[in-house]
Write a structure and sequence with these properties.
261 residues; Beta-galactosidase, Chain A, domain 5; 9-stranded antiparallel sheet; 4-stranded antiparallel sheet; 1 helix; 25 strands
Length: 261
């Protein structure tokens, strides 16, 4: 699926709901599959963020304990395309409560073969490409009171020279510092905006609504994941404590805007 901005200077490519390319004036902004670092270019973390292995892949809910692997089961479901125009489109995933879902990490990377959640939910992902930005909206439609965490996990292309900076109003972080953070990722908390600053090419500002935190992660110098999250899970305390969860209002909206400049 291809989206084209009104001025024809921006092109977005989406494959089965995954943002695999965002080009501005011919410059690719997204990490490309097959390059070192990560096998994807974007994904979502839902209904939990973070690892569950320490708790034997179990997450506590008001309806009991249920099996979840790292970053939740949403990524094991498939998107269905709904609406498309020249510069916008929508995808949806639906889950029926208590349905067992095969874990693609089993058995090589996980001992949990089946994952499940005790709530029905629908998860909508919408893209809108304008002349100046790419807007991504997530809508969680679920039973009122359902606990959930949400993270968006896009990966951006770097030049490989380790000279980019990630900046907020109060903080600057280098790529080597992020790499040192390892698998627990580097937290940048209590902010809804963050920028990737480059020596050459487009900088990228990321504005969010509903997240208010970020994690930064990369094991390599050619890629960086800048991940809006509702809560940072690696707190050093109780794994996935209830304070980390949002509570569903039946319909909850989250927004991310990628702004090249």
């Amino acid at each position: 699926m291809i989206l084209i901005s009104t001025d024809k200077n921006s092109i977005v490519k989406i494959e089965k709901g995954e943002l695999i390319s965002y080009q501005k004036n011919g410059e690719e902004l997204m990490h490309q599959k097959g390059n070192p670092g990560w096998r994807n270019s974007d994904t979502e973390m839902f209904p939990i963020i973070g690892p569950t292995e320490a708790n034997n892949f179990s997450v506590v809910t008001p309806k009991g304990n249920y099996s979840q692997d790292q970053h939740g089961l949403l990524r094991e479901l498939h998107y269905t395309a709904k609406n498309q125009t020249e510069n916008s489109c929508t995808f949806i995933k639906k889950y029926t409560a208590y349905t067992a879902v095969e874990n693609s990490k089993y058995p090589e990377k996980s001992s949990a073969r089946l994952l499940s959640w005790p709530y029905n939910f629908s998860f909508k992902k919408s893209f809108e490409l304008t002349n100046t930005s790419l807007k991504i909206t997530f809508e969680v439609i679920a039973e009122k009171g359902m606990p959930f965490m949400l993270g968006y996990h896009p990966a951006f292309m770097l030049n490989g020279n380790l000279d980019e900076l990630v900046k907020t109003e109060t903080k600057e972080v280098t790529i080597p510092e992020i790499m040192e953070g390892g698998d627990t990722a580097y937290p940048v908390l209590n902010t809804s905006e963050i920028s990737l600053l480059k020596k050459t090419g487009f900088n990228i500002k990321i504005k969010t609504r509903g997240f208010n935190n970020f994690m930064l992660w990369t094991p390599v110098k050619n890629m960086l994941c800048i991940e809006p999250i509702t809560a940072y899970p690696y707190t050093g305390g109780e794994m996935l404590a209830k304070e980390l969860f949002n509570i569903s209002k039946e319909s909850d909206i989250f927004k991310v805007e990628l702004i090249p400049s």
